[in-house]
């Protein structure tokens, strides 16, 4: 990418040197390059074979869902990953932190940092496991439980938005189809 930019500037410099009365300063060259590029109408980029890739389409759907859910959770300063963690802790009081990381496919170090944040906010309590002191067990605080209860309808609104976007029947079929990945 950098080489292409250098070639464009070199070509602009040659044009500027050959044109009488034109400045060859770096600023003038940048302005000339930007002006030339801005006059060229933007053409949509071709997707190539990527447009036919199921994996790419799933990734685009995931990005749409995460953007929507992130926007809905933003007023609460909670990310989709944090909501997932809080939901699993709610469903499994006393869950082992390692088991939680494995279930949600979160790196242990990343989950540790997230737990620090949630604990500092008073949403989660970590305690050494009575069975194995090398592990932490996790519980929601009353504030954490109240927040999950408050967020649940907001998450449901996001699900409704997705169902509206793709159609109710397609939404149900997508849920059924993707449920195979819940066991992995």
How would you describe what is shown here?
- By secondary structure, the chain is mainly alpha-helical.
- Helices cover 65% and strands 7% of the residues.
- The chain contains 8 helices and 3 strands.
- The protein has helices at residues 2-18, 26-39, 54-73, 80-91, 97-104, 108-120, 142-166, 168-178; strands at 95-96, 124-128, 136-140.
- The chain has a 3-stranded antiparallel beta sheet.
- α1 packs across α2 and α7 crosses α8.
- The radius of gyration is 26 Å and the shape is extended.
Overall mean pLDDT score?
A: 85
Structural class: mainly alpha
Largest sheet data: 3 strands, antiparallel
| Strand order in space, largest sheet | 1-3-2
Total strand segments? 3
Question: What gyration radius follows from the Cα positions, in whole Å?
Answer: 26 Å
Strand coverage percent? 5-15%
Unreliable runs: 1-6
Name the helix and strand elements from N-terminus to C-terminus, one letter apiece: HHHHEHHEEHH
Overall 3D form: extended
Helical coverage, percent range: 55-70%
- Report the end-to-end length measured between terminal Cα atoms: 39 Å
Number of helical regions: 8
